[in-house]
Amino acid sequence: FFFFFLLSGYIKSIEVDSGQPFVLLPCRTNDRLPSNASVEWTDRHGNKVHVFQNDCTVPEKQIQFYRERTEMSVDPLQTGDLSLKLKFPTGADTDTFTCCVYSRRKRILMKKQVQLQVKVHQVEVCSGADKVLLPCQTSVELFKSYKVEWKDHENRMVHVFQDGSDYLENQDEFYRNRTETNKDWTQTGDLSLTLKHLTYEDSNIYTCSVFSPDGIEYKKQVQLKVEDCQVEVEEGAESVQLPFKVAPELLKGARVVWWRYDPKPVVTVHTYRYLSDQLQEQDHHYRSRTKMNEDLLQTGDISLTLIRPSAGAAESYRCAVWRR
Fold first, then answer.
1. For 176-224, how does the pLDDT look when each residue is reduced to its tens digit (9 = 90+)?
2. Would you say 211 and 146 are in contact if contact means Cβ atoms under 8 Å apart?
3. Alpha-carbon distance 280 to 270, whole Å?
4. DSSP of 124-144, one letter per residue?
5. Strands across the sheet with 70-72, in order?
6. How confident is the model at residue 1 (pLDDT cuts 50, 70, 90)?
7. Does residue 192 fall inside a structural domain?
């Protein structure tokens, strides 16, 4: 009977981009390991990522999040290569992972940590922009029988493409009539998503997943940040336009409100509902100083024209659309 301790305080750092087929978490030793030892990979919360015991992988012991996404080399105890392959890494996999080797009596024989940082591509756009492209390009061979899904961080369905056409029955209402993908994605590998009529509520992490009949083939994340639009006013300008465009379908029976929220106090600048402007609701400071497009129900352009703006004044405005 024998055992040894090989405890390392050194933490290996690994960086990888989301969209890679896998990342390797390295863990190797030149020391002899007992044939009846077990290997456990855990995350920083102690969740089991991968378990190798009795000369085989034990998937029942790993949590669902890592199921079917982990793999170790053949005969790891004999070769000393205990590295873990983690498939389809996303931002949620950013973590500190620990590899532990246990004796038959659960003594720790070896322990090593690996810090993984999964970098997610970031896209920034101004609120009110007409559209933005969430890029996703793959070299994986694609077939029309594959299904492409875009989901947001709340697991809402953003867009589905299957059997050569859009399949939007399960698309969340928030994204209805606002998404578009390339039709020739099987030839080009371009799975990018166009998201239209941006608001700050579109700031999110979006995941593109490709499924074949055998399971997942590809996954990539894109983080979208919708920033406040910056508009500069020149000295002596007669008017300035605060841009904002939405899907025309959102405006049917809706109430549109523009308000100034900085400097305080918050005041109503312009209200539109019942097919007309509701000027009695606006603050007296903006009387006869605001105008919206007459054809906004057809175009979705709910930009506000502010007459006689204050040059040099730092003011913040917001617009919201409410539907019952």
1. 989 999 888 989 999 999 999 888 889 999 999 999 999 999 999 999 9
2. yes
3. 9
4. EEETT-SEEEE--B--S---T
5. 22-25, 84-87, 70-72
6. very low
7. yes
pLDDT at 236 (0 to 100):
84
Q: DSSP class of residue 115?
A: E
pLDDT of 10 reads 65
> Vertex 142, ends 141 and 145: CA angle to 5°?
145
DSSP state of 176: T
Return the higher-pLDDT residue of 6 and 177.
177
* pLDDT (tens digit per residue) in 59-100: 999 999 999 999 999 999 999 999 999 999 999 999 999 999
pTM: 0.77
Contact partners, residue 128, CB within 8 Å, separation at least 6: 198, 199, 229, 242, 243, 244, 245, 303, 319
Work out the number of other CB atoms within 10 angstroms of the CB of residue 47: 14
Give the closest residue to 222 by CA, choosing from 119, 115, 82: 119
The domain that holds 33 is classified in CATH as 2.60.40.10
Q: Within the chain, where are the H helices?
A: 76-79, 185-188, 296-299
Sign of the CA dihedral running 248, 253, 254, 255: positive
Domain tally for the chain? 3
| 87 and 189 fall within a common domain | no
Whole-number pLDDT of residue 82: 96
Q: Which of 76, 94, 71, 60 is nearest to 22 (CA)?
A: 71
Total Cβ atoms within 10 A of residue 26: 13
Spatial distance between the Cα atoms of 260 and 103, rounded to a whole number of angstroms: 66
Residue 1 domain-assigned? no
